[in-house]
Amino acid sequence: MDDDALTKVALTCPNMEILDVSSCLSLTEAGIASILEVCNQIRNLQFEKCPLIKHIGEGSELPNVEVVSAVGSVINDEGLAVIGSRCSRLLKLNLDFCERVTTDGIQAMVKTCRSLRGIQLKKCLQVSINSLNSLLLSRGVKWTS
Prior knowledge:
Leucine-rich repeat, LRR (right-handed beta-alpha superhelix), 5 helices, 12% strand, globular, F-box_LRR-repeat, LRR_dom_sf, F-box/LRR-repeat protein 20-like, Leu-rich_rpt_Cys-con_subtyp
């Protein structure tokens, strides 16, 4: 699937609640941003193994998003900040195998997303769980690494 196909899906299904574009190798940040502008009812957003998506794009708040899974993506700290600022009701975040995410990015995310209850960080090589442990526990966030 590419950006054009995703735009057509958005126009056809503006009330979709689950968007899984995992392994869409041609999908770009512009494509994700455009569908999120049209489909503001999305609760579950998955863009696993999408090599061209570092973030979901600036834009309006996504008040219904509760789950984001970016396993094996190229998301970085800037991308986490965008998710944190747009997804105020985020409950679960899966960042397994996201090698560009750092401890600083996770700290900022946990501080911004007060509703966050679970985070997965397997093989996030730039994340020090020891330095995050007290912050995660103080916020009641369960994590796996």
